[in-house]
Design a protein that fits this description.
Elements: E1 2-6, E2 13-17, E3 24-26, E4 33-35, E5 45-46, H1 60-65, H2 78-94, H3 101-124, H4 139-159, H5 161-169, H6 177-182, H7 186-212, H8 221-230, H9 232-250, H10 260-290, H11 292-296
Antiparallel strand pairs: 1-2, 3-4, 4-5
Helix pairs in contact: 2-3, 2-10, 3-4, 3-7, 3-10, 4-5, 4-7, 5-7, 7-8, 9-10
Amino acid sequence: MTIQFHCPKCGSLIAFTDKHAGQSVKCMTCGQQQIIPEKSGQTPQKIEPKVEPEFPLPGFYHAVFIDSWKIFFDKDNITALVFVIAVVCFRFFTEGTFCMGYFVYFAAWGYLFGFYLQLINETAAGIDKLPEIEMGTSVTFLFHIIKPILVFAFAVFIVQLPFIAALSFFKDKGVTWESIWGTTTVLNLFLRALFAGGLFLFPMAILVAAVLEDLPELLRFDRLFVPVIRAFFPYLVVFGLLAAVCFIETHTRQYESLPILNTAGNLAINLAVQVVAIIAMRSIGLFYRHYDCYFSKSW
């Protein structure tokens, strides 16, 4: 069950599952620390604000590569892990088998994207648990599927906006998506650099969307650049993990009429993608948590 309450400082609506009741969290709008109440509508206990940190919180790499593995062995996360496994298996065995195959694919990724966004949000707020899954009913069922996909799509669009604008500007010169990669010219190299730069900023765009939950804020490119520049090497780790997820996912194969060992191997790769994805999404939230001092100066 979800506990909804308003920040005692700025009035922003905050929501967490009831298993987090009593824990300390930070309002992502104003930064106010508070205790999650026991029931919806209750006024959270306000924690006196601390002095804004001047230096990053140490231990980022340890938190990403060591502490992240602990969540896979925490009994409180069993339900969330079972859900992820069920979604992956359902997509693996049903994709392309009947006319609903596209809907299954769409629904599976919708719920996984929603899970990722919530995981980033809760990790950034200081919660080291996997989020609970809210399936919803009727209309809310579709909402839980469509909204996360639109958020990810909008984040991709925003970071690729310079590339899209440049591509449109040079369209009269015969530049197309295909020609960019087909020939090597100064203009094509420039457009490739814009495209690669957009992909590089994508983790930051998802962080802004997950933490602030205010998509227009993505238009503030200073929110994307400042933390990346100030904590470049930790951000490289975040980007590398997310790139690994995309690389492995593009090389996965769904169920086919193959020997059982081949089928088991393909399913194992699909599940491995989610292990890396969970660590990657946690690393995005941990980037905000450990380098909050850089965000506060631009946010």
